[in-house]
């Protein structure tokens, strides 16, 4: 059964499921050739995200520590968040940097964009490198966020990734796009 993945999927129906604030659940029913079986697939339809790797002129990376509900733990991450409807991803990156860290950047450049999980999600994560990052007032996190701003030397990032200090796949990927790590990743907790 070697049907081409490009030609074997026929969308039969699309049914909206619950709106869960950060995602809307959708059920897509497909006919799959060549056997013509029919199956429902769950799709999470949500807004795009941004992740920002913020670099200071004195060689530090500005990070955030915050509680993550999925893992039930506090994690060390780059600033990031949701792209609002109609918002340019670069503008969202600068907004999230400002809100979560209280910092502004001299420049922001796109360094990549990928689907976080195309098996079930419709959104993309846009990655940015912010240069010349400086304090610009106090952080202004969302009312349900509790964030600690942490600065680490840029040279320590590969070691910290290898030791498992970053438990978020999209954060490790952001460091890779930014050229802060290369080679195989190791160190899981």
Outline the structure in words.
- The chain is mostly beta strands and 189 residues long.
- The protein has 2 domains: 37 residues; 129 residues, Nucleoside Triphosphate Pyrophosphohydrolase, CATH 3.90.79.
- The chain is 15% helix and 41% strand.
- It contains 3 helices and 12 strands, in the order E-E-E-E-E-E-E-H-E-E-E-E-E-H-H.
- Strands 7-4-10-9 form a 4-stranded mixed sheet, with helices on both faces. It has a 3-stranded antiparallel sheet with strand order 1-2-3, with no helix packed on it.
- Strand 5 and strand 6 form a beta hairpin.
- The longest helix has 13 residues.
- The chain is elongated.
- The mean pLDDT is 92.
Q: Short summary of the structure?
A:
The chain has 189 residues and is mainly β.
**Structural class, from helix and strand content?**
mainly beta
Report Rg: 19 Å
What's the helix-strand series?
Answer: EEEEEEEHEEEEEHH
Spatial separation of the terminal alpha carbons: 39 Å
What is the mean predicted local confidence, pLDDT? Answer: 92
Q: CATH superfamily of the largest domain, called what?
A: Nucleoside Triphosphate Pyrophosphohydrolase
Shape type: elongated
Number of helices: 3
Low-confidence stretches: none
CATH architectural type of the largest domain: Alpha-Beta Complex
Strand order of the largest sheet: 7-4-10-9
Major beta-sheet overview: 4 strands, mixed
């Amino acid at each position: 059964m070697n049907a081409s993945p490009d030609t074997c999927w026929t969308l039969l129906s699309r049914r909206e499921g619950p709106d869960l604030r950060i995602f809307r659940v959708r059920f897509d029913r497909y006919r799959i050739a060549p056997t013509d079986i029919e199956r429902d697939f769950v799709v999470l339809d949500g807004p795009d995200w941004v992740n920002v790797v913020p670099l200071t002129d004195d060689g530090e990376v500005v990070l955030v520590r915050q509680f993550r509900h999925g893992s039930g733990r506090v994690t060390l991450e780059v600033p990031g968040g949701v792209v609002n409807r109609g918002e340019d991803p670069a503008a969202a990156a600068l907004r999230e940097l400002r809100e979560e860290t209280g910092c502004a950047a001299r420049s922001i450049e796109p360094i990549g964009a990928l689907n976080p999980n195309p098996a079930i999600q419709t959104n993309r994560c846009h990655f940015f490198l912010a240069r010349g990052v400086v304090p610009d007032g106090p952080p202004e996190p969302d009312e349900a966020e509790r964030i600690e701003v942490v600065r680490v030397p840029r040279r320590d990032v590969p070691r910290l990734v290898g030791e498992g200090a970053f438990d978020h796949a999209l954060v490790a990927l952001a460091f890779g796009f930014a050229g802060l790590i290369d080679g195989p990743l190791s160190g899981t907790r």
